[in-house]
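TASK: fixed-backbone design
INPUT:
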């Protein structure tokens, strides 16, 4: 028996990968020539790295040249079990005996009883060498107890010598290590003394910079509120002037206002955005921009997925800049674990609400109802989206009455009452004016209820690699997934024209949000595709149905896409709303029934969906997000 039987857990993992003989005991024999073994590590049942006992290792006994019965001891070479067995046992480390490797070794149990419990690599080598001899010179060598006692004495003496040698060497190493640690501690203490003054100096400078940043932020917020008020007033006045036949007024830049007036249709808006993006050195096709724009109209979360460097966040940023909207980038961190990472939290000791960039953007959008806001959750699947985004997804479905509740109304009333004490402290010069202003602003901005206005668009980017997390059905049902494959540099041609951004108000944007009643999908269409999905254990509900209908209605109303074939719009929705749900092990049932039925349904009407279906069909483990590595 090889010397890797008594290795620790990490070594076991290597052994499973590289091979080696295990010790096993027969626990079941089937008349058809197969059975189960229990794998042992010394006198204990072998446990896999994920703490599952290896009690059902499959083996074939019909090929063995010797008779075998239950409870016989054997040695065998482990082999990776089929994936079906791993799933059945719920154990990725599940093994089976390699074909033809099982050998009967009855006497090995008697030999093991007389061996001492010694944790020594050299002892293990001696012991395993002896076990190897059993395998080489015969499977039924009887070991006399007298000889076993002699071997035990020799091993005990050898172990004592090895232990004393090891003890002496380790003590010497320990003494040297203590000297090194003492020197290091002395150096660290000296460094600490030298650094304390610099740290305190930097802390004071940081405090001053923080106070200044808060003041600047408040000034910018006030300025933005003033600008939004002026824009709203301008639109109201111009409406009245037009009604009476007078010329309109403008407090914006003339070029931007003139461009605003030219937007008499959605196609003209898409053409302008495409022109603006090219002037900034980026290239996206007309249909890619139209697809992104149509997804925004469905009031769902728009997720741009693909390989790193394909311009996902660039599209969101440049689109928002083209129409004079606010773009807020929120980098998602792998450590995000709940909604406080997204929406902030109330600090009970400091009696203040600790906000986030995401929540600040929502508050700013409330103060500027005619300005569009694009909030981009960058690399949103670095953490599990359900952990930090689930509650906010539910809020987005509340219709017009969408509200965030950071804390209770009672707690907010207590905070308002505390402002009176802060005012007294200010009068008595116990706190500064800046401290009071910050406390007052915090109470005023972060109320017990914060509206989530409809002039915000929640977008996200997803990188497709092994470091990210998959999406649950809750997220997929509430999102439009836009895929980006490889960048085609041959199609890229930068425009030399300088295109000035154009302000598009929320009212103007919603003015375009009209639907058409004629769409190429109906209840029979949804029932047919859902029945096919059920073959593979998938399905979708009314929420997905409504989103597909809305997308087709918006996309077909004004002819936004270059193709005039309505089925091409439906093709996009199959890719963005239905195919992301297909995932899991590629079983025989999927190969023989599901994929053929899906391809038959798509036929020539939905060629892009069929292309992705062919890619998914050839995957051992179906993963929609890996499709982006195969398509352009």
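OUTPUT:
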């Amino acid at each position: 028996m090889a010397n890797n039987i008594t290795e620790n857990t990490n070594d076991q993992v290597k052994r499973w990968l590289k091979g080696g003989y295990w010790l096993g005991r027969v626990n079941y024999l089937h008349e058809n020539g197969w059975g189960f073994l229990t794998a042992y590590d010394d006198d204990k049942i072998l446990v896999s790295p994920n703490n599952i006992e290896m009690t059902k290792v499959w083996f074939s006994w019909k090929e063995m040249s010797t008779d075998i019965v239950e409870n016989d001891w054997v040695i065998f070479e482990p082999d990776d079990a089929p994936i079906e067995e791993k799933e059945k046992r719920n154990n990725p480390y599940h093994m089976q005996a390699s074909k033809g490797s099982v050998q009967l070794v009855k006497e090995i149990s008697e030999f093991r009883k007389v061996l001492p419990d010694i944790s020594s690599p050299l002892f293990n080598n001696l012991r395993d060498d002896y076990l190897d001899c059993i395998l080489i010179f015969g499977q039924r060598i009887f070991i006399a107890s007298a000889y076993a006692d002699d071997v035990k004495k020799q091993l005990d003496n050898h172990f004592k010598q090895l232990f004393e040698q090891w003890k002496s060497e380790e003590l010497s190493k320990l003494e040297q290590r203590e000297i090194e640690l003492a020197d290091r501690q002395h150096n660290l203490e000296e460094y600490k003394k030298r650094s304390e003054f610099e740290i305190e100096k930097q802390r004071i400078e940081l405090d001053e910079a923080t106070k200044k940043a808060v003041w600047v932020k408040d000034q910018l917020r006030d300025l933005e509120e003033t600008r939004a008020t002026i824009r709203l007033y301008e639109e109201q006045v111009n409406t009245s002037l037009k009604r009476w036949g007078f010329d309109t007024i403008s407090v914006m830049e003339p070029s931007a206002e003139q461009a605003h007036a030219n937007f008499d249709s959605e196609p003209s808006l898409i053409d302008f955005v495409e022109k603006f993006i090219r002037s900034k050195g980026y290239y996206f096709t007309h249909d890619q921009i139209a697809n992104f724009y149509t997804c925004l109209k469905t009031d769902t979360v728009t997720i741009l997925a693909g390989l790193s460097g394909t311009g996902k966040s660039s599209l969101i940023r440049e689109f928002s800049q083209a129409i004079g909207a606010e773009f807020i980038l929120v980098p998602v961190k792998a450590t995000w674990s709940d909604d406080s990472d997204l929406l902030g939290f109330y600090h009970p000791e400091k009696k203040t609400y600790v906000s986030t960039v995401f929540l600040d953007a929502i508050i700013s959008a409330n103060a500027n109802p005619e300005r569009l806001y694009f909030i981009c959750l960058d690399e949103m699947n670095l953490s599990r989206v359900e952990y930090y985004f689930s509650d906010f997804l539910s809020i987005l479905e509340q219709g017009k009455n969408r509200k965030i509740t950071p804390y209770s109304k009672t707690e907010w009333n207590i905070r308002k009452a505390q402002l009176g004490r802060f005012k007294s402290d200010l009068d008595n010069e116990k706190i500064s004016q800046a401290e009071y202003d910050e406390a007052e602003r915090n109470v005023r901005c972060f109320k017990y209820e914060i509206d989530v206005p409809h002039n915000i668009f929640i977008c996200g980017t997803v990188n497709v690699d092994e470091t990210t997390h998959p999406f649950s059905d809750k997220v997929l049902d509430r999102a439009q997934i836009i895929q980006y494959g490889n960048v085609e540099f041959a199609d890229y041609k930068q425009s030399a024209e300088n295109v000035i951004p154009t302000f598009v108000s929320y009212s103007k944007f919603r003015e375009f949000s009209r639907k058409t009643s004629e769409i190429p999908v109906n209840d029979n269409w949804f029932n047919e595709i859902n029945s096919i999905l059920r073959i593979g254990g998938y399905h979708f509900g009314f929420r997905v149905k409504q989103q597909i209908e809305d997308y087709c209605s918006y996309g077909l109303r004004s002819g936004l896409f270059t193709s005039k074939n309505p089925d091409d719009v439906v093709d996009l929705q199959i890719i963005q709303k239905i195919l992301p749900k297909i995932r899991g092990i590629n079983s025989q049932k999927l190969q023989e029934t599901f994929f053929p039925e899906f391809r038959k349904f798509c036929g020539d009407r939905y060629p892009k969906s069929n292309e992705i279906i062919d890619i998914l069909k050839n995957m051992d483990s179906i993963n929609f997000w890996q499709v982006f590595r195969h398509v352009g």
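COMMENT: The chain has 21 helices and 19 strands.
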